[in-house]
Amino acid sequence: MLHPGNRKVLSYVREHQDDVILCVFNVSRVAQPVELELSPWRGRVPVEMMGRSAFPPIGEHPYLLTLPAYGFFWFRLSLDAEPPQWHTERMPAEDLPVLVLFDGWNSFFRARVVPWRMGMAEKTRAQFERELMPQFMLRQRWYAAKSEPLSRSNLTAHAMLEARGSQWLLGLFDTEGSSEAARYFVPLAIAFEDVDEERTRTLLPIAVAKVRQQATMGVLADAMGDVSFCRALIDAIGGRRQLAAEGGNIRCIPSAAFGEVVGDALQGPLDLQRLTTSSNSVSLLGERLFLKCYRHVRAGISPEVEMGRFLTDVVHYRNCVPVAGSVEFESSDGQVWCLALLQALVVNQGDAWNLAVAQLSRLLELRSGLDDVAPEDLSAMAERLQILARRIAELHVALAKSTGIAEFEPEPITAGDLTTWSAAVREEFTCTFTLLRQRSAGLSAPLATLATHVDSLQERLLARIDRVARTAPRGLKTRLHGDLHLQQILVAQDDFLIIDFEGEPQRTMAERRAKHSALRDVAGMLRSFDYARHTALHQTAQGGVELEQLAPLARQWEQRMRQAFVHTYCETVVAAGLYADAADFKEARALLNMFELEKALYELRYELDNRPDWVAVPLSGIAALGEMTDGQSAN
Question: Are 359 and 381 in contact (CB under 8 A)?
């Protein structure tokens, strides 16, 4: 039991191993606020269990909720869910540590100060790397290893960016203490109250520490929240500046579209609309520019930058966000780390995921209790997804153009490719089913029954994988998106824009840049429809009985969307000559089905490790693929 000060609110926590459920009830006939002491679960994200909405993460201070009359919340206190995108992690100013400086940025570097101050510089650097940066990074959403110790963040390489009398440190930090060493890019700003009180106040919520130099107080903060830094970095990109760094140099590189994208944005005031943070940080500037700072950086050419430049500058694909430039660090041994990306800011109405889930939820609410969906109820949604299918097909057609650029030159799929791909999926199949058997004892009874059924389909599923290696190769190997789903699609002016060409985060840079069948992207979209169906169904249904009643309608929606999507995609790629005709594309469906199985296997491993209550979604998808007859498609 929890015992809040407001006695009109009943609250308690239920726990089983790592699963924690928070229940809060307002027993009053009027709205009530409540503060809950939840510090034992600090860092967890409350996920509302009826609508699956994520709330801000739990911190050190009491958690404030407001409940309507007789209202209630059931939260799963999640270790893996992402906080809301609009949430900003703020540390109270009074809790920030204080760093004493004696010569601005030079205070960190013994080689830049007079000999009798070298010891002071070493002490300042040690405090910065051993205390301040680890504490700061552990508070950030973009830091990947929060559950592991972080003993030190070493400033391995850095450069100074200077503009209009200000300086910023572009730092590459190598972590110590976690199970796997990692490198992070953190640009930093220093602002002093006496010089610029407003800027200091703006940077306080994203501060690493307070700083004091003689009698002057200020902050050391994340520069991505400093509009002056953003302006200076964009200006450096446009000017092709190179900044000398320890062990290499930082290059600012404009694309051919820089002038068109940036225009006169730097001529007048440039407002920082919003700083958003997830695995990376994005500053939205004015109504024109989108500056993305990569945080966990890896050596290698960035697929997102490379793809963006190719689509923008070479093949002029219209339904992606134009790339204006990038920033990269090249070490003295020739390795490259991409640090930042500059793109156009596109006004949009959200992503295709929220559109699909919202439309299906409304349909289920309107048709609740009926046995079927009227055709006209689905036609408008299907027409929208046909536009999306056309845009994705046009992307694949653009990537299949012969341009003479070796990294993007299309190649015919060979029998050897089919053998290699099917062998890789077979290996993933074995690993996934081994994990499923290990975890099945912890599943609920319905999920365990479904897992047993899927296990019984192993021979049929393996036969589908093996059949691919025996089919005649058709189609091309090209570059592709690599992580395509509904959340990677923006809805803009009754059309769609494809974003985020980073590829699957768990794959190496080389794997993300490898040429493959574009049908892997199609498989990702089809699996995304399945997740949208389950999400809308659980958001709409108010209990087990209603869930059972609405499930056939939701399944009917998914089948119609899949059919419309695949049909239009086929028409577009056949018209462009990627396949000889519809029959030729149909012969490639065995490959598409295998890629859909590959995606569902990846999803199953992820859900078993992170979200056991979602295991039913990939399990059902795998079962559907296993139950198909030879003449059927995944539709």
Answer: yes
